[in-house]
């Protein structure tokens, strides 16, 4: 069972997840059950991947949205499991792409076995996600899930394609994270409403909510990659710099930088200089602050969208989830 | 449009495909349409991958099976496109696993761009396969397709896991190719019958047919990897030896080999000796012959299963397809 009391923050995940603890356990059990194979080798690999889970971001958003839409049904548990399987698959393939060695304080599958095995384990997870998804009696939902994974792949491809472009535009950065991260969180909250046969305005509002939370979450993730501590965050950091991924702090810094400052930050980003030059430190801090503010703006939009739904304790939890996503330390 | 007149054999693909030429074209068009993205980068990558297609093995088996079951419906074209997309995805990921440089006489995606891009393009193809599959109005078929891809991944994982095991048992070899290759050909022919609402005996018979053809096809593929000519076959060969993949000729050779002969063949397999020692050449040729005979036995089983279906020109084509799969030179 995954420990979901992992975060230290003024808003803890324990508090956020308190109304859905039993359901999150049920999702974890379904996930275990789905991945079971008659081949011991595969069970060993999957047991390792299950250790990657932890935040249960997508399932928790889906389940809280379901509560806000009147209550959690069996189909919600199924779909929450599907989305977590998809997320795990992207983590496993991401670790191949990013050449990451550590994930949740454990060696990655790619590191522990080989890139080949990691590619196949990711494929195995995604295949099981679709297998479970096709058990839903709403084919339109399965189709929306697959449309969402189309977008996730597009976002990832765009990201790999733009590696090394330190002058990435803010629009393209947003488009990348909208597809690669926010498509899945938007599907989580929107489809919770769809499965509850909610009015279309609720579905739309929850789509906006999930998308904006996803965008803010990714902005903060990218910020932590530049500023966080590996032990606290529990995964390899600094990979964005190493791989030439241009993220929002760099984009904000660039807009106001004169040529020498831009040269100095690039020297640090590319590793030509280990330490950041002192004279750009305060401008860099300002860029980080502006990045946090951008994330906050997306959260404001998310919370505004929620107003379409009737006031319930579950809606309150979703408001808090949005806040949490920008205050987390890991 | 893919050239489907590519094979030279007493049985040509042109003859085999003659009753389904228009439908195969329709499948190629659907495939093109499905992969279209608003991102030019992705269209470029997909255009390259489409060049991998060619044999259209799975679509042609499905369409001929559909004809044998009373006629080709729109759902058959959809499912044929889905299976070809899945197949293309496995090719792209296989080329990462096998470090292959050439596929259909062109550089592989992995070689042309990067392993990272190849992983993502494979994911993109599989996602589109499921997206299209979920448009079928029979969710049970979508579920069977995903169950089949679960098995494909298991087969691939088993294969990677057993690399370097030159003493692989014939049972485990068969299990690997049954999952990694035959699961998809079995799904192609069985689901053709399912979509035509055929009696369950027909579905079962076509499952056996597709599975046995798939097994024979893979046995011959593995044989060609050891004996074929890169230019004729049109892809990187010898990768099984280089990667330590033990295939049927080696398994047959080993059964009758004394220790010095076994040592000599291993020296050749591992590349310690460039040339095979002269004194094992005839035993090696015998093992190749036995391998061809094993493939023929599977084809006999496939053709026997077909007897459950009423005699039609389409059934005759399926009989010929089975023969072709073991007589092909590439």
Give an overview in words.
By secondary structure, chain A is mainly α. The first copy, chain A, has a single domain, classed as Farnesyl Diphosphate Synthase, CATH 1.10.600. Chain A contains 16 helices and two strands. Chain A has helices at 13-17, 21-35, 40-50, 57-68, 74-97, 109-112, 115-133, 139-161, 170-195, 200-227, 230-233, 239-242, 248-256, 259-269, 281-306, 313-327; strands at residues 102-103, 106-107. In chain A, strands 1-2 form a two-stranded antiparallel ribbon. In chain A, strand 1 and strand 2 (106-107) form a beta hairpin. In chain A, helix 2 (21-35) crosses helix 5, helix 4 runs antiparallel to helix 16 and helix 10 packs parallel to helix 16 (313-327). The first copy, chain A, is globular and about 60 Å long. The model of chain A is unreliable at 1-9 (pLDDT under 50). The A-B interface holds A 37, 39, 41-42, 45, 93, 96-97, 114-117, 119-124, 126-128, 130-131, 133-137, 139, 142-143, 145-147, 149-150, 152-154, 156-158, 160-161 and B 37, 39, 41-42, 45, 93, 96-97, 114-117, 119-124, 126-128, 130-131, 133-137, 139, 142-143, 145-147, 149-150, 152-154, 156-158, 160-161.
């Amino acid at each position: 069972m995954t420990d979901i009391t992992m975060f230290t923050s003024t808003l803890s995940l324990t508090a956020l997840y308190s109304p859905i603890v039993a359901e999150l356990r049920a999702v974890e059990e379904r996930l275990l059950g789905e991945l079971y194979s008659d081949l011991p080798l595969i069970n060993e690999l999957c047991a390792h991947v299950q250790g990657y889970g932890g935040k249960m971001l997508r399932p928790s958003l889906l389940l809280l949205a379901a509560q806000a839409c009147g209550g959690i049904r069996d189909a919600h548990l199924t779909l929450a499991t599907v989305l977590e399987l998809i997320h795990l698959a992207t983590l496993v393939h991401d670790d191949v792409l990013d050449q990451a060695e550590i994930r949740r304080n454990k060696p990655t599958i790619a590191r522990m076995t080989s890139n080949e095995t990691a590619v196949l384990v990711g494929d195995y997870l995604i295949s099981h996600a679709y297998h479970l998804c096709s058990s839903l009696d709403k084919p339109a939902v399965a189709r929306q899930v697959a449309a969402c994974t189309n977008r996730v792949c597009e976002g990832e491809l765009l990201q790999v394609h733009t590696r090394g472009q330190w002058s990435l535009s803010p629009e393209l950065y947003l488009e990348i994270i909208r597809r690669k991260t926010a498509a899945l969180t938007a599907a989580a909250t929107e489809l919770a409403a769809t499965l509850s046969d909610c009015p279309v305005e609720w579905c739309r509002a929850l789509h906006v909510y999930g998308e904006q939370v996803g965008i803010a979450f990714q902005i903060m993730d990218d910020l932590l990659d530049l500023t966080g501590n590996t032990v606290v965050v529990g995964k390899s950091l600094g990979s964005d710099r190493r791989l030439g991924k241009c993220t929002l702090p760099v984009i904000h810094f660039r807009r106001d930088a004169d040529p020498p400052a831009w040269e100095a930050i690039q020297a640090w980003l590319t590793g030509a200089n280990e330490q950041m030059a002192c004279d750009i430190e305060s401008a860099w801090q300002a860029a980080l602050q502006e990045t946090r503010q951008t994330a906050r703006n997306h959260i404001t939009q998310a919370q505004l969208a929620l107003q379409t739904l009737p006031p319930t304790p579950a809606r309150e939890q979703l408001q808090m989830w949005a806040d949490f996503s920008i205050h987390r330390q890991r």
